[in-house]
Automatic annotation (TrEMBL):
InterPro entries: Ergot_Alk_Oxidoreductase, NAD(P)-bd_dom_sf, NmrA-like. CDD domains: TMR_SDR_a. The lineage of its organism: Bacteria, Bacillati, Bacillota, Bacilli, Bacillales. It comes from the Bacteria. Pfam families: NmrA (PF05368). It comes from Planomicrobium stackebrandtii. This is Uncharacterized protein YbjT (DUF2867 family). Transmembrane segments: none annotated. Residues 2-228 form the NmrA-like domain.
Amino acid sequence: MTVLVTGFTGNSGYEVAQSLRNKGLLFKCAVRNTEKAIKHYGNKYDFVALDFADPDTFKRALQGVNQIFLMYPPGGSLRFAEFLEQAKQMEVQHITYLSVKDAQFLPFIHHYKNEKLIRKSGIPYTFVRAGYFMQNLNDFLREEIKENRRIFVPAGKGKTSFVDVRDLAEVVSLSFQDPQLHKNKAYTITGSEALNFSQVAEKMTHVLRVAISYTNPSAKDFKQYMVSHGKDKGFINVVVGIHFPTKLGLAKGVTSDYQKVTGKQPRKIETYIHDYQNFWK
Ligand SMILES: NC(=O)c1ccc[n+]([C@@H]2O[C@H](COP(=O)([O-])OP(=O)(O)OC[C@H]3O[C@@H](n4cnc5c(N)ncnc54)[C@H](OP(=O)(O)O)[C@@H]3O)[C@@H](O)[C@H]2O)c1
């Protein structure tokens, strides 16, 4: 069995690859630019070119693949339905799709539509509907934390159900290890507690031993600041959109699906902050 890991250079794909490797499962890493990937990661991985916007890359990327870790990247013009069609034609046996918590109630988002497409394809699937990535703190929130010692995001006082991407990756790799057990199941994977960003700032202050605050900007102030710092408008709107449900108090649900699937407790945010501390130094 060989798994195709899409989005390998991103948060989830990379951790899925690590988890598959730890379990001794075979996998190939899909990237848009194989040369760049080899330069960056060396020869430890088997890279194959895949661009969801370019159907000419689909067949070759899927050759010899039995299972797919499928993520949906940001950006438009993706030929996702065609990719699924090709996977079906090439008799892929299982897709584990990275979706988002509550996707089933949100018909206007990509994940709702993609889940529907995957179901329609008839390929056995597992949906991993994820809470808010802890790794956002070392990704798009990193610069402000590092430079200005603040979490700068328009999330109000609402709580969100943080999850460590490494825990998601564990669930994903288990779905490939025993696809029959996880066939046509949907899991909502969160950490064990919902937190607001003031609490996260306190925890960062405690673990990193440096004062971090949460400044709770309005969406308008956030946008103005980000535009004045040259950030892309599309990206800014996505960040505002992601945090709006949190602000409304709609993102705080936690589940025990991680414990049920893995038999373990999910990582706490303190562990995540400790493990990733070099990102903010
Ligand atoms: N952040 C959260 O809190 C959160 C929570 C729940 C669900 N999610 C979902 O997680 C997904 C994002 O996952 P992530 O954070 O792991 O990704 P990420 O770190 O944003 O990385 C994006 C990945 O997609 C690849 N990519 C971009 N355009 C592509 C294309 N046209 N064809 C093929 N690959 C392409 C990138 O590869 P290149 O190196 O080629 O650019 C990169 O590996 C989204 O669907 C999001 O909705 C996120």
